[in-house]
Design a protein that fits this description.
mainly beta, 10 helices, 22-stranded antiparallel barrel, Maltoporin, Chain A, 8% helix
Length: 897
């Protein structure tokens, strides 16, 4: 009888356990007051699960029974969080979620704090967030260009006739150096390029981080802190930090294809990218792959100089007789390719995590990118018999510089919570290799025995970083609202090596001209690295740091940070920062910060050395770049490199009244001491030092400059809800002025040669070679399945300063005007206009058409004939506002499954 009574109870318990063991489903629809929001992100806070809404605004997440916090976010809307319980009584809850218009001011940003993320109105320093939708809808296919047209304080331009710099565009923040901002991937330091820029471009003497090696399809959003952050993140963060957050969603597949031809008929770009995520409640893996192909750009003018001989009459006869211009492989009477290299990129990125018990997870991210590039050097004419083997190239040749560039990175970590402490242990490895090949060239000193293709060598930079971080909210202490404490340590190993090229790329073969004059040794276009250039250097760096957030009152926050670092090659450094924010109600936040930062001399700057051909006033020189360890540097009195140091002060506010309006303004001032620069060329007057080392000029890395930078960042946005949809208007503006604050730092041996060490052109590269003013006006209209956007980008003027023309005695004849004039020139401001139209065809497919620079705006052309290299260089290659690609139009397809 008892067994009979227990049987139903047993069946009931088994049934309840079976039901509880079943997974549930959280589903629903996300909309605004006009209809469903396709593409809204839905995530379970504190888990690895997330997804995106389909074309109908619907979403679905499979979960185990429990209590969850659901967060819904969408571009230009306020994020929304709500609690959801999944249990036996409600195993499949269905939700209706309505978002209201907002802005990125409302979104939380992790950057700048080791504690809970803060929104822009809560942060004590200037923050900016760029969403994946903004990236995709920008119309640009590489990350450096995306940021160029979305962030006014960021600048990046493809260079031309600049050796390796043609293949990795230098990027800058607030008009400072390309190595004075730090790049993070999911909060971990990204490795820099192994290339140091040594030609006459923006970023000369600095090392860049190659942002274009990161697929845009892998990016969830980008966080930007526009404030000195050396006390929080270490070296390089003088101008700020860019933190790239990778996608982590797990329930969708997306395909992006884009084709973007130009109206000029070159520079066409094709891109294909995929993103796919898989996962469960215990982990996820997100995969991205991207391929981009970009044709070269040529905006060279018609050549007006001589080809075969200096006798102009005879030269014209030979040009016609030999049909010269049809032998050059360039259109019309061009003899050069000036504008932009051709590149092909292929890359893969992974991001994943898996639970390691109830309170910890193992995470990883990483990937690689391979780039092939090809750019042309200056044309070698048959009249230049010391450079051209006429038996191989009777009509001269245009050397081709080919590059093979590989970036690799991987991060592994374990993070979790123990007794209220958040603990994060991680290791990040990253490297960049850069190899040169020269084709369609010759080594004139070898005569007819010279090959025409050469391997010229290359270099490799790598880093290995281990971090251990602790953070905890201590709650109410000392009568304060709350105190948050964080501290940690970092150990970094860096390695830099130079690899020699084939002997034919650098050897002096001994061939001479008829009169016995020696011919130029090395592969023309790019001389290979020699065995004496080879090296393999490493250093270590150890750091400890601490942050405390003092929540003095509910509306008053004080942040303090300190960091100590010790480098094995130059010593130690201490940086600090104090920042504060005071909220006045929910609408206004006032903030300010003061602190110090530094930048350690990179291994590339300390050890790079080579011999290159550089054109100065249309004359070719063999230029030796000698490193800190060289006897040449010692003879010239070049002191060992030391760290750049800076102080940074900022003050600003965020205003967010009701009605969809936001306004942000931040003023800043930075003083940087001992900036590392690449010196000018020491030639005339230094023959006794140069002749023994067989170069016509020498240059060195040195701490020569002290600068001050002052400026303001302003941004405003306004959302207008109308009957048919939403209109969004935003205006962002950056004004930044850098000036030399002291005289050039000159060592004793070089006293009286300050103008050579750092001449007026080099000074101008810091002060006026980048726009001091830049503004971006965006107007966006969304209605049902349609989205229309119009963006205008204003680039302020830039100025080219010729190194010799400070003295009117050095001015030369301008053939355009018939007058003797200065070669200095200011290039006027310009406005570029981009448009995008997007249509959601169905729940899986989005189509876009649009254009960049639709009115085909170009920079001003050179107005002095002496700057054009006999007509070939129409647009400046020394200073640039936005490049010379011209108008491009595109069609783009985005598929989500």
């Amino acid at each position: 009888m008892k067994a009979i009574l227990l049987l139903p109870l047993t069946i009931m318990i088994i049934s309840l356990n079976s039901a509880w063991a079943q997974n549930g489903t959280i589903s629903g629809v996300v909309s605004d007051e006009f209809g469903e929001l396709s593409g809204a992100k839905v995530e379970l806070v504190g888990t690895n699960q997330s997804t995106y809404c389909d074309i109908n605004g619907s979403f679905q997440l499979e979960v185990k029974p429990g209590l969850y916090t659901l967060k819904v976010s969408y571009l230009m809307y306020k994020s929304h969080e709500l609690g959801v319980r999944v249990d036996f009584n409600n195993l499949n809850p269905e939700l209706q979620i309505i978002l209201v218009p907002g802005s990125t001011v409302d979104e939380d940003v992790e950057l700048g704090s080791r504690f809970a993320p803060k929104s822009q109105i809560e942060s004590p320093v200037a923050l900016e967030l760029v969403s994946s939708e903004e990236i995709i809808n920008s119309g640009y296919l590489s990350l450096s260009e995306v940021l160029m047209y979305l962030v006014p304080s960021f600048n990046s331009n493809r260079q031309t006739i600049a050796d390796g710099t043609d293949h990795i565009a230098p990027s800058t923040v607030r008009g400072l150096g390309s190595d004075q901002f730090l790049v993070l991937i999911d909060g971990k330091r990204r490795h820099s390029s192994s290339l140091v820029n040594v030609n006459g471009t923006i970023g000369r003497g600095s090392v860049s981080t190659d942002l274009d090696a990161i697929p845009i399809t892998a990016i969830d959003h980008i966080e930007i802190m526009r404030d000195g952050a050396g006390a929080q993140y270490g070296s390089d963060a003088i101008a700020g930090v860019i933190n790239i957050i990778l996608k982590d969603h797990t329930t969708s597949f997306s395909l992006l294809t884009a084709y973007q031809p130009t109206i000029a008929g070159d520079g066409d770009e094709l891109a294909v990218g995929v993103n796919y995520g898989v996962g469960s409640g215990s982990g996820y893996l997100n995969f991205s792959a991207e391929f981009r192909n970009r044709e070269s750009i040529n905006r060279a003018g018609e050549y007006t100089g001589t080809v075969y001989t200096s006798d102009t009459v005879q030269d014209q006869q030979l040009i016609q007789q030999n049909d010269f211009y049809n032998q050059t492989d360039f259109e019309g009477k061009r003899t050069m390719e000036v504008g932009g290299a051709s590149t092909f990129d292929g890359g893969v990125f992974l991001n994943g995590a898996i639970d390691a018990g109830d309170k910890a997870e193992v995470y990883m991210n990483g990937g690689f990118n391979y780039r092939q590039g090809m750019a042309h050097a200056f044309y070698r004419f048959p009249k230049e018999e010391d450079k051209v083997v006429l038996e191989l190239h009777p009509d001269g040749f245009s050397p081709e510089i080919h590059t093979d560039i590989l970036d690799r990175s991987i991060t592994f970590g374990l993070r979790g919570k123990n007794q209220g402490w958040l603990i994060d242990l991680s290791t990040t490895l990253g490297d960049n290799s850069f190899d040169y090949s020269v084709r369609n060239s010759n080594n004139a000193s070898m005569g007819i025995a010279s090959p025409t293709d050469f391997y010229a060598g290359g270099f490799v930079y790598g880093q290995n970083i281990t971090n251990l971080d602790f953070s905890k909210s201590l709650g109410s202490v000392l009568g304060l609202e709350r105190i948050d404490l964080a501290f940690g340590s970092e150990f970094r190993v860096e390695n830099y090596s130079i690899v020699a090229g084939d002997a034919e790329s650098w050897i002096d073969g001994g061939d001479t001209l008829v009169d016995g004059t020696a011919r130029v040794a090395g592969s023309q276009g790019f001389i290979g690295f020699q065995p004496e250039n080879e090296l393999d250097k490493r250093r270590t760096n150890a750091a400890v740091y601490g942050d405390i957030d003092w929540h003095i009152l509910e509306d008053l926050l004080l942040e303090t940070a300190i960091r100590y670092e010790n480098y094995s090659d130059f010593g130690s450094n201490v940086n600090w920062k104090v920042a504060s924010r005071y909220k006045i109600g929910d609408m206004l936040s006032i903030r300010g910060a003061v602190g110090t930062s530094f930048r350690a001399p990179s291994l590339q700057q300390r050890y790079f050395n080579n011999i290159s051909t550089q054109f100065i006033n249309d004359e070719a020189f063999q230029v030796g770049t000698f490193n800190n360890e060289s006897a040449a540097a010692n003879q010239f009195g070049i002191e060992r490199l030391k760290a750049e140091t800076s102080t940074n002060t900022s003050v600003g506010f965020t205003l967010k009244p009701k009605g969809g309006f936001t306004f942000n303004a931040d003023g800043y001032y930075m003083k940087i001491k001992d900036r590392i620069v690449l010196s000018g060329l020491f030639s005339t007057g230094f023959e006794s030092l140069l002749n023994p080392i067989n170069v016509g000029a020498a240059q060195f890395f040195t701490n020569a400059a002290n600068t001050e930078t002052a400026g303001v960042d302003v941004s405003t946005s306004y959302n207008i809800v109308i009957k048919s949809g939403i209109i969004r208007i935003s205006l962002k503006y950056n004004h930044s002025v850098t000036s030399m604050s002291d005289s050039v730092n000159v060592s004793g041996v070089l006293q009286g040669n300050a103008e050579t060490l750092f001449n007026r052109e080099e000074v101008s590269r810091l002060e006026v070679a980048q726009p001091r003013n830049k503004a971006i006006l965006l107007m966006d209209y969304s209605m049902k399945k349609w989205n229309f956007s119009l963006r205008n980008t204003y680039f302020g003027s830039v100025t080219y300063i010729h190194p010799d023309d400070g003295d009117p005695q050095n001015w030369v004849l301008n053939e355009y005007t018939g007058k003797v004039e200065s070669r200095d020139q200011t290039f006027k401001p310009k406005v570029l206009t981009d448009v995008n139209v997007n249509f959601r065809v169905n729940k899986n497919l989005n189509l876009s058409v649009g254009g960049t620079n639709i009115f085909n705006i170009y920079p001003d052309k050179h107005t002095h004939s002496a700057n054009t290299n006999d007509g070939s260089i129409q647009y400046s290659r020394r200073v640039q506002q936005f490049g010379v690609r011209g108008a491009a139009f595109y069609v783009r397809m985005r598929m989500n499954l």
